[in-house]
Amino acid sequence: MIEIRGHHLLCAVTFVGRGYSRRFERDYRRVIARMNDNEEMVIVGGPDAICASVKDCAGSHCHEERIVARDRAALAAISALTGRMLTVGSRIMPHDVFTARHRAAFRDGTIRAACADCQWSDLCDRIAADGFQTTLLDRR
Ligand code: SF4
After folding, report:
1. Could you tell me the mean pLDDT of each successive run of 10 residues in the chain, 140 residues long?
2. How many structural domains compose the chain?
3. Is residue 51 domain-resident?
């Protein structure tokens, strides 16, 4: 079971395997591989499988309220898109979430209110505009 926080349902579709520390990249790649294998996910309310290697580091933002608010915004937007209410404790299959519709909504901004104050937003904009061609999560 993959523990995943709300806004990482957005971030996962733009991860290209770099841009973070080596350890973080390695762990992130492992989570993406598990998603590609369609391992079940459970929504958590704080640090998740992607955060695992950095959540206790000095300066980590994993526990900050603004990041938890980002989770809430992402879950609200994805719930509205899919018609399925996603909250902490919800269980979902990666292949049911990371669809062409999800990517289209990411690209047109429909589900990206959570990204408003994120330092990576321009990078994610470019990755989406390029059709997610370089990302590691399988495109379905
Ligand atoms: S802009 Fe930030 S929060 Fe949004 S998908 Fe990219 S990395 Fe994640």
Report:
1. 97 88 90 98 94 72 88 98 97 97 97 94 95 92
2. 1
3. yes
Please report whether residue 134 resides in a domain: no
Domain with 54, as residue range(s), is 2-129
Non-local CB neighbours of 36 within 8 Å, separated by 6+ positions:
94, 136, 137, 138
Q: Residues with Cβ within 6 A of ligand 1?
A: 7, 10-11, 14, 114-115, 118, 120-121, 124
Task: Give CA–CA dist 111/105, Å, rounded.
Answer: 6
Name the strands in the sheet holding 2-5, side by side, starting at the edge strand that comes first in the sequence.
2-5, 41-44, 91-92
39 domain residue, yes or no = yes
pLDDT score at 58: 62
Q: Is residue 137 part of a domain?
A: no
Q: Whose CA is nearest to atom 8 of ligand 1?
A: 11
- For residue 24, what pLDDT is reported? 87
Q: What pLDDT is stored for residue 19 in this prediction?
A: 65
> What is the distance between the alpha carbons of residues 70 and 93, in angstroms, rounded to a whole number?
21
